[in-house]
């Protein structure tokens, strides 16, 4: 395929387990397709939805990925790469794909607090319409002319009645005269959605919706986070670093910084007058602590995963380690100070490092010193590298977020059909 040759794509090394697919069939409304675009990887996931039984979960039928440097590709190569990975998913899942949800890594993704309400006047049983009113008022809050809404995550529901105010997990069916929703708006630069929708249109794919990558990351990892203090998830990517903060079992903050492993590579290339490939190899051999014994011994590091390839004795390593540590400390000390100033960072908790950059030698110790919190690679499972674990976390999270979107769409269609049917019956009864 042209895109594979032009961009030197390679099949990705990690994929979640998939179920056996039936004979070739058209993609139905109970099938989910997610196209995910990251800095070094393009993937497509096909899953089967259980719309009436969400507790059964979703079944992954196909997952295919192509390794590439997405931001270095031309527009034509991007279209071909996306089209190729969709075709691979079609072949594995034996379905014809005509629509998909799309998600992309973006350094401008961030969160903002929001609130909405529904005032009912008297104690009544709350309905899905009341919930929709509160959510609509959350979404309608200003985000700025240079930003646009990607998604909304409700975090707290409160119902007020004559007996006082209480928090509820699911407001529908509760009795009260006022409903309040606290949540976070996930926003990105203006044009983020249009760019992804345009890509889908260019490859003859209907875009069902744009998914927020931070929300997918959180949905995929939330079951592994601690319940006390602050839980931070730091995705150390090639082009950016994404930070999620959970407190009191709720996602309270998302921010993305345009700093990643590629920036360290370019700094090393400039400092030592190397080409990018040699600078990348030098970075693989860096140990920020310049010590061989580390508290996370037993978990894989970048050098363990890729091999030192003769870099271990390079006399430039100490200077390279000092340069990398200076850049990392500058970025993360500013982040820690900002989180403390906002009152988001607790005195206890755990930091989970995911992504390929998390394997940089000595990074765990540096972040432990800066944040004064326990730091683990990925979920803390020994023998797993955070890069492959991130693939599994994101894939499952994207499927969960897309399934929620689809169920909401199906419920909305059912409500419309019910209203139209009721109106039609009323009209025909009057005519008779």
List strands and helices in order, with pairings.
Layout: H1 2-7, E1 10-11, E2 25-26, E3 31-37, E4 41-48, E5 59-67, H2 75-93, E6 95-96, E7 99-104, E8 110-125, H3 128-139, E9 147-161, E10 164-168, E11 175-189, H4 192-202, E12 206-211, H5 213-221, E13 230-236, E14 241-247, E15 250-257, H6 261-272, H7 276-284, H8 302-306, H9 317-341, E16 349-354, H10 363-371, E17 374-377, H11 386-431
Parallel strand pairs: 2-6, 3-7, 7-12, 13-16, 16-17
Antiparallel strand pairs: 1-5, 3-4, 4-5, 8-11, 9-10, 9-11, 13-14, 14-15
Descriptive report:
The chain has 11 helices and 17 strands. It has helices spanning about 1-5, 75-95, 130-140, 190-200, 215-220, 260-270, 275-285, 300-305, 315-340, 365-370, 385-430; strands at about 10, 25, 30-35, 40-50, 60-65, 95, 100-105, 110-125, 145-160, 165-170, 175-190, 205-210, 230-235, 240-245, 250-255, 350-355, 375. Strand 16, helix 10 and strand 17 form a beta-alpha-beta unit. Helix 5 crosses helix 11, helix 6 (about 260-270) crosses helix 7 (about 275-285) and helix 9 packs parallel to helix 10 (about 365-370). The chain is globular.
Features:
432 residues; alpha/beta; Dna Ligase, domain 1; Nucleotidyltransferase, domain 5; 3 domains; 6-stranded mixed β-sheet; 5-stranded mixed β-sheet; 38% helix; disordered N terminus
């Amino acid at each position: 395929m042209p895109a594979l040759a032009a961009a030197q794509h390679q099949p990705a090394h990690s994929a979640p387990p998939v179920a056996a697919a039936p004979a070739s069939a058209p993609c139905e409304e109970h099938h989910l397709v997610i196209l995910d675009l990251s800095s070094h990887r393009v993937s497509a996931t096909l899953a089967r939805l259980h719309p009436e039984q969400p507790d059964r979960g979703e079944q992954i039928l196909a997952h295919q990925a192509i390794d590439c440097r997405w931001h270095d590709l031309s527009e034509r190569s991007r279209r071909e790469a996306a089209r190729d990975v969709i075709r691979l998913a079609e072949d594995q899942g034996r379905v014809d794909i005509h629509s998909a949800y799309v998600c992309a890594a973006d350094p401008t993704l961030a969160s903002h607090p929001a609130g909405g309400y529904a005032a009912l006047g008297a104690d009544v049983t709350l309905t899905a319409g009341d919930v929709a009113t509160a959510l609509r008022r959350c979404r309608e809050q200003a985000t700025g002319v240079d930003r646009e809404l990607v998604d909304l995550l409700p975090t707290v529901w409160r119902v007020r009645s004559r007996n006082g105010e209480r928090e509820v997990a699911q407001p529908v069916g509760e009795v009260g005269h006022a409903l309040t929703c606290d949540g976070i708006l996930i926003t990105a630069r203006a044009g983020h959605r249009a760019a992804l929708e345009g890509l889908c249109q260019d490859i003859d794919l209907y875009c069902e919706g744009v998914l927020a990558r931070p929300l997918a990351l959180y949905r995929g990892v939330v079951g592994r986070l601690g319940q006390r203090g602050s839980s931070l998830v730091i995705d150390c990517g090639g082009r950016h670093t994404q930070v999620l903060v959970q407190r009191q079992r709720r996602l309270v903050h998302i921010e993305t910084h345009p700093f990643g492993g590629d920036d360290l590579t370019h700094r090393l290339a400039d400092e030592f007058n190397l080409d990018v490939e040699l600078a990348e190899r030098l970075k693989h051999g860096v140990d920020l602590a310049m010590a061989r014994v580390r508290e996370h011994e037993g978990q894989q590091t970048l050098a363990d995963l890729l091999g030192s390839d003769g870099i271990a004795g390079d006399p430039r390593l100490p200077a390279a380690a000092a340069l990398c540590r200076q850049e990392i400390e500058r970025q993360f000390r500013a982040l820690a100070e900002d989180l403390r100033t906002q009152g988001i960072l607790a005195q206890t908790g755990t930091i989970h490092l995911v992504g390929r950059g998390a394997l940089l030698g000595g990074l765990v110790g540096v972040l432990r010193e800066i944040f004064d919190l326990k730091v683990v690679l990925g979920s803390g499972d020994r023998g797993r590298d955070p890069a492959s674990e991130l693939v599994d976390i994101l894939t499952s999270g994207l499927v969960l977020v897309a399934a929620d979107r689809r169920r909401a769409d199906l419920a909305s269609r059912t409500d419309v059909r019910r209203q139209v049917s009721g109106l039609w019956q009323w009209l025909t009864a009057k005519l008779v």
